[in-house]
Design a protein that fits this description.
The structure is a homodimer.
Chain A lengths: L1 E5 L6 E6 L6 H7 L4 E7 L3 H13 L3 E7 L8 H13 L7 E6 L1 H13 L5 E6 L2 H7 L4 E6 L2 E8 L4 E5 L8 H18 L1 H15 L3 H21 L14 H11 L6 H18 L5 H13 L12 H9 L11 E6 L2 E5 L4 H16 L4
């Protein structure tokens, strides 16, 4: 088992990574301080892992469960309200601990519920998808979507612990494994060129779920994210580099309707747009671009936006993004492979051409 | 104008108290750091004060407004969702500042919206009721009710500034002035015996809205609350003393249905129950009890619970209170007049008799 600590002063917490560790009760015992536990999961994950977790924890705690519908479409204030109702019906008080058992949607909503139930209760993440293991399990972002924008409602809230069981990846659809790999590759692009090189060599073993290598990839991704988050917990500055590809990606997700493109797929296409724009600005070589495209492709990820979108769609949807400061569009771009910058200082003509060329290329692909 | 600072490290903020200061633009300018402002208010307050505030701030900022229905019955997740929709429709970003113009319900909901819009934006309180001026403007509690319990959903979130204009009390219904006075008297009871003495002398002038005296009362109440909150921002310990009368009071409010008894009225009756129980335990003299009852009465407040309730109602409703730790009922009681304690160490027979006697006395009052 690998362990790392996210250093956030009094809000520091451990991340455990290993095969089968969701059954290690001592990891939970260390993080639970009351008598009540509420496991929040969804209809897909519940049949796989819920009973075993309830049995294990019921030895020591009063365990209740809340099973949500599965999917980004249900990441809403209404579903969040359901978690609150479950907690109140089970008469859980301020000493309860909420366990998020599932992917990013479950983690975001259960975390937001933990942040706001009786103004804050304890929270443990047990992420079961690669995306949530390398992304949402570090950084304390919790929340829900609004019909007018993704992740517009939420709070920063840190868990007591994150328990990453790599065995849960064996039940993950391959499409979602790819989506998670988009974020893993992103860490290489923004802050770790050596990790990017390693990923190029190991991508086939990773896609085949070699347990040691996937644990390494998760560990290095979490370390990368934890380093950035520790420097900027509330996303005032450098933390924004974690959003490489996300401003473009959110536009794709919003236009296509939540859930039609997986988040990681939209991030992959968005990262390629950001890499392409960085190349147009003279920051990257053509080889950097082709290596990036090849790596995302090797992970079975899209490298172009959907052909049905237009430049105007991108512009309209990117203005609502949280990274827009008083109207000027700020983007995460690369200064070199392995080094990201946040800037609003890019030629708008490059931005336009980057998207127009990508959309044209996308139209030429037989659908 | 009186000023005090709530000392909370990097989350410290000023409270300004004075007649007419809602029209002092410089107080707002100091606290607003972006270009966008969203004023959240309700249908009762909007006709009185909204236009003037919009005109004043529109000189420097892009001002949007959100007018909520008035009343505790609307302090819900749905109404909170409306604020989020208003913010998104007006395309407000992370640099926006939310101004709560109204009483405690507006402040709690606007504050919760500020705490959670895009994971946290700036927030200014302009409380227009005595209750919100002396209570909810200090301490950072924000949130909404759930059908199964009051204030069960929310966050701790501090404003950039609180601007208390005592002139707004002139438009307040007298019943609500009394309700606010319940909290003022509470501060005397829990931590400031000299203030309690002063209130006994000045209660008639205060009820007549003598501007200097009401400013003093608000200032001393805010100082008392700020002292307690500074010691315990997240309500882990001593802060609970601020809830004198509230555990009883919440039971009354919940049983009667939100809004039928004003919060302050329920707190007054609840404080008298807590004072009575403290006397039964030998902590107070009979004179302490009669002085307390007389002061609440002089502020036109109820000193007995509603006759239609039973001991069983109280017990059932008090178990759901946030101050119940793993099942044992903890109450705020007085150790002496001006000194509160939090304890679960009281004879249950005293608790029962205290409520039964009060309910019997209440039944004898012609309704």
């Amino acid at each position: 088992m690998r362990t790392l600590t996210v250093e956030l002063g009094e809000r520091s917490y451990p991340i455990y990574i290993g095969g089968g560790i969701r059954q290690q009760k001592d990891l939970f015992d260390q993080a639970i301080h009351g008598k009540q536990v509420m496991i929040v999961t969804n209809e897909t994950i519940a049949p796989l892992y819920l009973d075993a977790m309830v049995s294990m924890l019921a030895e020591s705690y009063q365990v209740a469960t809340c099973i949500l519908p599965d999917g980004e479409a249900f990441k809403t204030l209404e579903t969040y309200g359901q978690i609150m109702t479950s907690l109140l019906e089970a008469k859980h008080n301020r000493t309860t601990t909420i366990i998020a058992l599932g992917g990013g949607v479950v983690g975001d909503m259960a975390g937001y519920a933990a942040a706001t139930y009786q103004r804050g209760v304890a929270f443990i993440q047990v992420p079961t998808t690669l995306l949530s293991q390398v992304d949402s399990s570090v950084g304390g972002k919790t929340g829900v979507n609004h019909p007018l924008g993704k992740n517009m409602i939420g709070a920063f809230y840190q868990p007591q612990a994150v328990i990453i069981d790599t065995h849960t990846l064996s039940t993950l659809p391959v499409k979602e494994l790819s989506a998670g790999m988009a974020e893993v590759i992103k860490y290489g692009l923004i802050c770790d060129a050596a990790f990017f090189d390693w990923l190029e060599q190991e991508i086939d073993a990773l896609m085949a779920l070699d347990n040691d290598k996937i644990s390494d990839a998760i560990y290095r991704s979490c370390v990368a994210k934890a380093d950035v988050v520790a420097q900027d917990e509330r996303e005032g500055g450098i933390r924004a580099i974690l959003n490489l590809g996300h401003t473009f990606g959110h536009a794709i997700e919003t236009h296509m309707g939540y859930g039609n493109w997986l988040h990681g797929e939209a991030v992959a296409a968005g990262c390629v747009l950001a890499v392409d724009l960085s190349w147009r600005m003279g920051n990257l070589t053509e080889q950097d671009v082709s290596r990036s495209v090849a790596l995302f492709k090797a992970a079975n990820l899209p490298v172009l936006p959907p052909a049905e979108m237009t430049l105007e769609h991108f512009k309209a949807l990117m203005v609502l993004d949280k990274k827009v400061l008083d109207g000027s569009l700020r983007l995460v771009l690369l200064d070199s492979l392995g080094d990201a910058i946040v800037t609003s200082d890019f030629p708008m003509s490059d931005f336009d051409e980057c998207i127009i060329d990508a959309l044209e290329a996308s139209e030429k692909i037989p659908s």
